[in-house]
Specification:
Helix content: over 70%
Bound molecules: zinc ion
Strand content: under 5%
Low-confidence stretches: none
Oligomer: single chain
Structural class: mainly alpha
Number of strands: 3
Strand order of the largest sheet: 1-3-2
Largest sheet: 3 strands, mixed
Mean pLDDT: 94
């Protein structure tokens, strides 16, 4: 088993990757948010067109106020786009709108990783609410009960982040294909879409690594106390 100091280094490493990934996604979003597409369709228009083309008629497209808060909610069948995506005809906006449509298509096709992810969401939400207790009692004071609780919490979060990876990669893959085939973006614009979506993908990899390294660290703390 790995020692406490080694797993602590892994936690730090994962945190650095997470910070870099966050800066990269913000940077890519901003950079390609200034590049307008030739077709000039807004994120909302692109989403509407994609959903119509694949025969999805029961999904609402809504405008949310949170910046980069774009997501598809399978429980309500709502595709939420932030103002910078909803109203913009930039490369970033159409890329993200198409990515969220990718999730709606996964839902329609009963794509199994999405099904699994939806099943794990409620227990993941409970686990997340226990995090402050785990942080203070487990990581800080090394209290055995909280370390055990933390192992359960991070095991759940690790599984959740792992199943999120195929869901996110697949949605981006679908988005890139649809945008090219439908002619919403031109060849040179597709490169920008790739950069934005690939940068976003790294934030999910970082979230997985973060959960996994925290889990390993708690296991190492437990073992060191035996
Ligand atoms: Zn997504």
């Amino acid at each position: 088993m790995l020692s406490v100091s080694v797993t602590w280094m892994l936690v730090i490493g994962a945190s650095i990757i997470a910070i870099i990934a966050q800066f990269r996604v913000m940077g890519a979003f901003k950079r390609f948010g200034q590049v307008r597409t030739m077709r000039g369709l807004t994120g909302a228009e692109v989403a509407k067109q994609i959903l119509r083309d694949v025969g999805i008629t029961d999904v609402e497209i809504e405008r949310t106020d949170s910046w980069l808060g774009d997501h598809y909610d399978p429980t309500k069948k709502v595709l939420c786009l932030s103002p910078g995506v909803f109203d913009s005809d930039s490369v970033s906006a159409v890329g993200i709108a198409a990515h969220e449509c990718g999730h709606a298509i996964q839902h329609k096709n009963a794509y199994w990783p999405l099904q699994v992810r939806m099943t794990v969401v409620p227990v993941t939400m409970i686990a997340s609410q226990l995090l402050p207790l785990v942080m203070i009692g487990g990581f800080w004071f090394h209290m055995m009960g909280f370390i055990t609780l933390g192992i359960f919490v991070y095991a759940i979060l690790t599984v959740f982040q792992l199943i999120t990876l195929p869901v996110e990669f697949d949605a981006s893959l679908r988005a890139k294909l649809i945008l090219r085939e439908s002619g919403v973006v031109m060849a040179d614009e597709a490169d920008g879409v790739n950069k934005v979506l690939n940068a976003a993908a790294w934030t999910y990899v970082a979230a997985f690594l973060s959960a996994l390294t925290h889990l390993l660290h708690l296991l190492a703390i437990r073992d060191s106390r035996d």
